[in-house]
User: Fold this.
Amino acid sequence: MNSNLKQVSVFSDSKKHYEILDGLRGVAAIIVVMFHLLEAFTGGNHLVQIINHGYLAVDFFFVLSGFVIGYAYDDRWGKMTLKDFFKRRLIRLHPMIVFGTVVGAICFYFSASPTLFPKISETPVWEMLLVMVIGFTLIPIPKSMDIRGWDEMHPLDGPAWSLFFEYIANILYALFVRKFSNKLLAVFVFLFGCLLIHLAVTSPQGDVIGGWSLDGKQLYIGFTRLLYPFFAGLLLSRLVKPGSIKNAFLWSSLLVTAILAIPRIGGSEHLWMNGLYDSLSIIFLFPLVVYIGASGEIYSKVGARLCKFLGDISYPIYITHYPLIYIYTAWVVDTKASLKDAWIHGVVVLIASIVLAHFSMKLYDVPVRKWLVKKFM
Assistant:
């Protein structure tokens, strides 16, 4: 999701626009929705999840984000202030954070489940509204304020945790990292890569899943998942000149889909093997996907429209779909529905997520951002 997400302002960018990267972001965002839908049937067992590595889409978004931030802003600092940068990033990302939180608040009581979310029925409206207002700021809430029961830092809209880390990455980039030489940045990227491998290989679950709670362990996971991919993407934007690859969208979208959909590796007896797959995918394969995507062109009108549509909905679908997932998962658990029983309902939720994303972008996000640009830029 991560904002991990469409980075270049559609209102002010004069550089070449990477249409294929927009399309890839949309492909990965839709896979995230499918991953979360299928997660309802696992009972928390990562080993049996279909589209098993869909959680790695967050790390892919971070690579994309670092690459496009570097491409869009590295050469602008002579004529752009810190204030200008932060205003651009807030205008790009924050309206949909507010909207996603509102959607989460509207859906909150519809996901009440005595089995899955027992706290919801005990949560008064005033407390939910307080959490909603805090959610508008993206400030994470402590576990003591959890109103759902999953210890999320944003319990009305779980994926907002990755936007919290996206903001941190933007702050680090603007204050310090943009000034790093390529050699110094490469040293940090190498160290962050080692940290990522250690986390993944030694994880009790054999993966990099985590980062959404406000405690030491989860924050460690979140920062480790952020630091390598974001700054590796930034370094990639500085060092690599895109080539010329035919059918780049086809090949890069197939590759990222395969990486995210591949079954669990190593089983329960060799968890480290899956951790190694996670870390190597983030370290090597995701930068390769970004390079392929940046090295292609879209020549057909159909391809251009597809990439534009996928890019347009990528961030909105990521930040608005999870309240629908809460409702769907609660229904699956309470009714003990099997995948065979509930697949059609899942398709409906997927379509609803795409429709919600499209219209929230058209009717809310774009108009609000245009107004904010006119007002503050």
Observations:
- Confidence is low (pLDDT under 50) at residues 1-12.
- Residues 83 and 174 are 10 Å apart (CA to CA).
- The two ends are 26 Å apart (CA to CA).
